[in-house]
Amino acid sequence: MDIVHVRWVDRRQLVGWDEKGHGIVMDGPADGAGEGTGVRPIELVLYGLAGCTAMDVVSVLEKKRLDVRGVEITVSGEQFVDDFPHYYKEIALEYVVTGVDIPDAAVARAIELSETKYCSVKGTLGPQVKVTTSFRVVAPPAPGPHAKAAEQDA
User: Fold this and answer.
1) Which residues have CB under 8 Å from 27's CB, separation 6+?
2) What's the alpha-carbon Rg for the chain, to the nearest Å?
3) Average pLDDT over residues 121-140
4) What pTM value is reported for the model?
């Protein structure tokens, strides 16, 4: 069982921590009742979704023995604002996978497995949340002159 603790600090600022002592600061926006000193609680859903699916995608690609050098995900969410609660009605994830000779089909399959099988955060979102994904695969930057000099010295 996962357990987290949240304590109100001031105005709309809250601090949270888990059983291992990892912490986070949450706050409302400065143009509202908060001071903007932390992440808005609703944004933690986006962080959680991105973190969960990134771990899955890296794991699946590594199991395929692909040379993955990086995964970065930009997540945007549009909230339902006509009534309460203001949940995310649409979430878009844009993956950028960096690696050597990584097939698009492998990335597409890794994302599909994350969405449909592995990602607990995605599984927690209800059917009222439309999640879309896009991705691109990029090659890592070529080594610079310092890397070539080090190879020659070896």
Assistant:
1) 11, 12, 13, 14, 34, 35, 36, 37, 38, 39, 40
2) 20
3) 95
4) 0.88
